[in-house]
Amino acid sequence: MQSSRRNLPQLLGDARRWFDEGLSAAMAAAGGAPVSPTQVQLFAVLDHEGTTVSELARRMGVTRQTAHQAVHGLVSAGLLEQVPDPSSARQRLIRRTQQGERAHRRAGAVLERLEARLAERIGQEAVDDLRATLEAPWGRPPAPDAE
Description:
Layout: H1 8-29, H2 37-45, H3 53-60, H4 64-76, E1 80-85, E2 88-96, H5 98-122, H6 124-135
Antiparallel strand pairs: 1-2
Helix pairs in contact: 1-5, 2-3, 3-4, 5-6
């Protein structure tokens, strides 16, 4: 008999979607440009001074092509721009425009409200415990067991 208990990656994915859906709905209600979950993730891993597409892809755990497509959509929406990388003549940095900075600040405020709403639903202590658990160093994934 198969267990109906869901594994942690499934539960963490559901939790991430809860925040992503709440953020997307709030940003759309405020008149923001619609963005995909990949674009939201890109915004979250982007350094203030700019980041290369290759580094964005690495941080997001996606292909360079996927990161490039997300960047292109956000550049077209006026939220990101590409600028020369002062440390490399061949690379360009991706960074937020002024409009992108405003959207990033708005998104941060929405996420704070969502976290407060979650605390109302499951309790502040549970949210604090969840945060502490997720912030704890987990180390590298273990090597596969030899069978």
